[in-house]
Amino acid sequence: MALAALAVFATGVLTASAHEDIESRVNGLLSRMTLEEKIGQLNLISHGPPLRWDDIQESKSGALLNFNNAQDVARAQGLARKSRLQIPLLFGLDILHGFRTQFPVPLGEAAAFNPRLSRLASEWAAREASYVGVNWTFAPMADLSRDSRWGRIVEGFGEDPHLGSVLTAARVEGFRAGGLATATKHFAGYGAPQGGRDYDTTYIPPAEMYDTYLPPFRAALDAGSVSFMAAFNALNGMPSAANPWLLTDVLRGQWGFDGFVTSDWASIHELLGHGIAADGAEAARKALLAGVDMDMMGQLYIKHLPTEVRAGRVPEAIVDEAVRRVLRTKFRIGLFDKPDVDPTRVDAIFPSPQSRQAAREVARETLVLLQNRGVLPVGAKTRSIAVIGPLADAPRDQIGPHGARG
Questions:
Q1: Measured between alpha carbons, how far is 268 from 280 in angstroms, rounded to an integer?
Q2: What distance in Å separates the CA atoms of residue 222 and residue 376, rounded to the nearest whole number?
Q3: What is the mean pLDDT of residues 51-56?
Q4: Mean pLDDT, to the nearest integer, of 276-296?
Q5: How far apart are CA 6 and CA 374, in angstroms?
Q6: For 64-118, how does the pLDDT look when each residue is reduced to its tens digit (9 = 90+)?
Q7: Phi-psi region of 158 (alpha: psi -120 to 50; beta: other; left: phi over 0)
Q8: Cβ atoms within 10 Å of 283's Cβ, excluding its own
Q9: Residue 160: half-sphere exposure toward Cβ, Cα within 13 Å
């Protein structure tokens, strides 16, 4: 089963027998779980407060984020292996353009118009991250944007749905080839906020959604993305984290997606700010019923869902289906069958000469010359070049957003 699961994850080809075997294992495990253990699988917590290490062994979290070294990953996974049912953890991290070796940001990468390079960059990022035990990335960002005022435009591929679809698929394929599961984000319409203001509401007619903003996400699904992240913002008045049309009707009903959906950071809690939930219990209930399977950093599921289920306001069958999607994904990517990461591994072996060569190849094709006033090509007699400006000696800024361990 281990080799079959890993082959499925790498190729995206799931035979009927492999599917039946995974479903059998999922259902067998689910039948042994208490309600609290089920809801623990839906809880995604970050490194640092409010994480309590003892909670891992008590099955109060199914996934962790912002773990980026083998020592912490091995410690946490070891505690999960000591839990009653020994269900392994997902370790998620924003890896948008490299882990240790830094590649061009996605918007720059799009300027190359070359999906081979997108696959190459993503595969290297995945190799480096998976080497230290990270197994899930909150990428690619499939949001299209046609407003340069939006501050997150750098994380995506620009304005064209065809280019966005091709490069999104290439990135999913590259991440998977290197050993990382993907959470394609932000589903959906997040890149068209009013006035370019991040988190602001979007108003997009259904026809435009299907023609422009949804195709890159469908391309991610077809390329094998095992999870999606719901957006922060409201689409046509309904927050994505409580939007059954997006998460259930389109993603699962029309597209047949059977993986899981995670919220963005505390976005279920933000349903209170959107004004559609009076308290945390109502926010948790609305998000789960809409189709959000995992609560990132809101802690509303683990706090309120046991009471909501026992009070009859949330059917336990809905919880079971969300847990089934999470467990199915863990089996599908071979997580139950992989050995835990060696805690002595350090990512200082990267960047390697090979990864630097790959980054240089990608960077060369992403360069865009806007104007040349006789400066280029640089003459053979030139001995030095001055780099001037406030960012000339600011490596963190030069790396770009979400540089992981770069």
A1: 8
A2: 43
A3: 94
A4: 99
A5: 53
A6: 999 999 999 999 999 999 999 999 999 999 999 999 999 999 999 999 999 999 9
A7: left
A8: 28
A9: 8
Record: fold of 2-332:
TIM Barrel (3.20.20)
Highest mean pLDDT among 3-12, 14-23, 77-86: 77-86
Please say whether the beta carbons of 68 and 348 come within 8 A: no
Q: Any catalytic annotation for residue 340? A: no
Question: Active-site residue among 94, 160, 211, 264?
Answer: 264
Alpha carbon distances (Å) from 396 to 56, 227, 273, 392, 403? 33, 30, 33, 11, 8
Single-letter amino acid, residue 80: A
What are the backbone angles phi and psi of residue 301, rounded to the nearest 5°? -65, -50
The amino acid that residue 127 corresponds to is R
Interval 381-390: pLDDT, tens: 999 999 999 9
- The position carrying tokens 């991610």 is 220
Element of type H or E holding 348 = none
CA atoms of 290 and 276, how far apart (whole Å): 13
Q: What whole-number distance in Å separates Cα of residue 121 and Cα of residue 117?
A: 6
What is the residue extent of each domain of the chain?
A: 2-332
What's the one-letter identity of residue 133?
Answer: G
The answer to whether the Cα torsion of 53, 59, 63, 69 is positive or negative is positive
Structure letter (DSSP) for residue 96: S
